[in-house]
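User:
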Amino acid sequence: MNADANRLKGGGYENEDNYQNAEFVFLDIQNIHVMRESLRKVKDMCFPVIDDARWLSNLEATGWLNHVKLILAGAVKIADKVENHKTSVVVHCSDGWDRTAQLTSLAMLLLDSHYRTLRGFQVLIEKEWLSFGHKFAHRVGHGDDKHNDADRSPVFLQFIDCVWQVMQQFPNAFEFNEYLLCVLLDHLYSCLFGTFLCNSDKERREARLTQHTQSLWTFDNSKQRPLFLNTMYCGPGDSKVAIFPIASIRYMKFWKSYYCRWNPRMRPQDSVHLRHAQLLSLRDQLQAKVDVLNKELDSKVGNSNGSLAPGPARRQEGQGPPQPLSARFESSINI
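Assistant: Predicted structure:
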């Protein structure tokens, strides 16, 4: 109905008569006003009091997981058309700067493993959201005292929530962890960095934000970087291999560690991201020890080849080459 109404005003969607071989798909994603009301219900459900007896019914009443599911299902459909059917896809919503950015960025995340690395994810947001012209100022309300303005909507928050949903189904496919997503959303509202200010790249250049503010990516790539790394990451692998999460309500999870993190009853006892950083540090220490021991073993083997004197590096005939220390310490390194 929204598409037909916009079409009467000169917008809407393309005329099917002009595209004989095109398949039109409406994803039934609700408008920004419905999303804003859904998030308000989520906030009321999570803070200040959590009703344990009605937790599931209250969650269903928000409609939030169903909205996230529809967005993720649309991205999976786009990725399937590109990867498996080898077809081109045109993506747009009524205006182009909300659902379009959500769907294209999620589809690229599914199709290319580069965007599932820390650096690649930053490039994806910079390209598909900031350079594309998503209206961060209007949707978030930076510098505006009209907090109930009709332009407010959690569009970028829903994208990050969808990324988190994919991470739950593919925990080894992402170089970054959940803490990075929380930091991105924190500074989406904090205004401590200039990355998410203004409505377009043109406005950011006119405001000379690069001279007056710092980029959030500078912070992410600084000494804080180990805090954002996933200890279960298995490497980029083949960038041509796409991942296809199951976009079903049965697989959708509520992101309690973000939405409920300020409620004392839901806050974890220890910091998960600090524990991840400790595990990464321990892995690096063990790897450094293995590298040193491998060098010592290589030097001993080299010395034994030039001498007949017995030593620990000397091996009997038929025993094969010495086993590398990295193999011996494999169980200790793979935390």
